[in-house]
Design goal:
Blueprint: H1 2-43, E1 47-49, E2 53-55, E3 60-70, E4 78-90, E5 93-105, E6 111-126, E7 130-140, H2 145-153, H3 155-166, H4 174-179, E8 188-198, E9 203-214, E10 219-230, H5 236-241, E11 244-257, E12 264-275
Antiparallel strand pairs: 1-2, 3-4, 3-12, 4-5, 5-6, 6-7, 7-8, 8-9, 9-10, 10-11, 11-12
Length: about 280
């Protein structure tokens, strides 16, 4: 009877011991995985870029911003909202989309809500703390394919309209003049060159030069400087679970050519960038 009792005891102890080993093994694997994941997250390059974007070399970056847009002394300030999403196909190639909305009272008699969409690709050259890119892009004022086709068919008529607009005198209504300070009348193509630098802790700098051209020969030149604060440098959870997390303050200075306006307009946008 004693041997039977001891045998039962051994049979009972063995599974408990095995389960204890399995528990330790799983806990160890979880710890190792968490450590490796934290190391891989912290090893990712994280450099702020214009328009609430960032260079990480992998995954998605998304950004949102809002601020104020000042067309000129003669036109009222507008609110501006913008957002972008960018996906890294390789460490040197990414692509995505951007949307921007303007809204508010242009003058004492009229208000407006205007939207613009851009599709872009980016060719990146990145170092440990510095990154630059070249970005071809197309701009749209509508996502309606039939309207885009109509714009293409009537592009020669738009050239004629541009010549007429160029010789209009100063009695043109202020609403039209103010609207010219932020719209580009349809489909455009352009190019952007930008760069960013991340300091060892907390801060980053970025800037871009942006050019667009449309069928009516209007041209847009935009200069975009900015400053970012790196939340991953002060927030341990963000450092372990995100590729990028920035709060940014971005300025904008833009000028239209061949639209009968000569003022530089200004924008100031507060935003954030998330990379996952």
């Amino acid at each position: 009877m004693a041997e039977k009792h001891n045998g039962k005891k051994r049979l009972y102890i063995l599974p408990v011991f095995v389960r204890f080993l399995i528990t330790l093994l799983l806990a160890g694997l979880s710890f190792v995985f968490a450590q490796e994941n934290a190391v891989s997250q912290s090893a990712v390059k994280d450099i702020p870029l214009p328009r609430q974007s960032a260079y990480t070399g992998r995954g998605f970056t998304v950004g949102l911003g809002m601020g104020v847009f000042d067309p000129s002394d003669e036109c009222g300030c507008l609110g501006v909202w913008q957002g972008q999403a960018d996906y890294f196909y390789t460490p040197w190639l990414s692509g995505g989309a951007e949307v921007r909305f303007f809204g508010g009272e242009m003058d004492s008699e009229s208000s407006i809500l205007y939207s613009r969409y851009r599709l872009f690709g980016k060719l990146h050259l990145a170092f440990s703390r510095f990154s630059m890119y070249l970005s071809p892009l197309v701009g749209l004022e509508t996502t309606d394919i039939s309207e885009l086709r109509q714009e293409w068919r009537n592009r020669s008529n738009k050239d004629d309209e541009a010549e007429v607009n160029a010789v209009k005198d100063s009695t043109e209504i202020s609403t039209t003049k103010c609207e010219k300070m932020f719209s580009l009348d349809g489909f455009t193509a352009g190019l952007e060159f930008g760069m960013g630098y991340a300091f060892p802790k907390y801060l980053g700098l970025f800037g871009a030069v942006h050019y667009e051209h449309n069928f009516s020969r209007s041209q847009l030149l935009t200069l975009t400087p900015g400053l970012g604060f790196n939340l991953r440098s002060v927030w341990d959870w963000a450092n372990k679970n995100t590729y990028s997390l920035w709060i940014t303050l971005e300025g904008g200075f833009q000028r239209y050519f061949n639209r009968g306006v000569s003022d530089w307009n200004r924008a100031l946008i507060l935003g954030f960038t998330l990379g996952v």
